[in-house]
Amino acid sequence: MASPVRDFIEYHFLHYNARELTACANGFRAHLDAGGKMMVTLAGAMSTARIGRSLAPMIRAGHVHAITCTGANLEEDVFNLLASDRYEALPHWRSLSAEDEVALYERGMNRVTDTAIPEDVMREVEKRMHVLWAAAAADGRRLFPYEMFREVLGQEDLAGHFVLDPAESWMLAAKEAGIPIYTPGWEDSTMGNMFTAWCMREGHEAHPVLRSGTEALAALAAWYRDASGPGTGRPSVGFFQIGGGIAGDFPICAVPMLIQDLEEADTPFWGFFAQISDAVTSYGGYSGAVPNEKITWGKLAASTPKFMIQSDATIVAPLIFAHVLGD
């Protein structure tokens, strides 16, 4: 079968960042072909950038087996589903004045670079979350952030409010596939703020409804053991990182934690590593750190295939996913 995008990349992307993109895509495919699983991490505002159009098909094809993302990416995929037709494009965002920003604020439009999201969709989701949180507190249930969203996405009436093709939602694709989503620092998100405010109103007894970040790391480590531990007969899990920050640093630390802190010395290092970032290598910065630095922290082996593409992830990630899918 013809693969126009893959063929185009293989023919034209021969040097510099383009060559790194080609090599990364082929390395991703080789890892999957060998039976390996892949963790994808999402930083920034990739959901608002509509990463679901390319990530959802990857999930449905069985090429993504776990996701770590910021709380913003978790919720903004759902906001897209419910209100993308009311988003406002801001093509001249670089020249907006402080007064322009105030006008957006007063209209309840929250800017993400060149896009403004209506605050009312956030409040619509909050109302559903309030019911869920109260029921969970009453039942003594404790949930990770992605489990909260999955319960909301499973509500029978919600699909009637979708304004976006559900095929473009990576959250729905992940729900259908049953893959885990780990969300460190969820408090740093709109829903995380709303949950905190709800807890402050309800009292400290409400906080346990949300399972903690350390519990998420333990769950991720257990998943990693099952996916690539000794005796599985598979390559260790690959790590495909979009952006930097906590979305990448949190999950990659599961391996040195298992090896060094739990003293499970037979735990394999991550079996593939790729990062797309426009961050530059700097003094102490994580996002722009070259992959080999991770060797010293017990995250990668010297032999781990490593790729660093310094470019715009909104351009690069869809191209790599299309190459892997054979589009």
Automatic annotation (TrEMBL):
It comes from Phycisphaera mikurensis (strain NBRC 102666 / KCTC 22515 / FYK2301M01). GO terms for molecular function: deoxyhypusine synthase activity. InterPro entries: Deoxyhypusine_synthase, Deoxyhypusine_synthase_sf, DHS-like_NAD/FAD-binding_dom. Belongs to the deoxyhypusine synthase family. PANTHER family: DEOXYHYPUSINE SYNTHASE (PTHR11703:SF0). SUPFAM superfamilies: DHS-like NAD/FAD-binding domain. Coiled coil: none annotated. This is Deoxyhypusine synthase-like protein. Keywords: NAD. It comes from the Bacteria. The lineage of its organism: Bacteria, Pseudomonadati, Planctomycetota, Phycisphaerae, Phycisphaerales. GO terms for cellular component: cytoplasm.
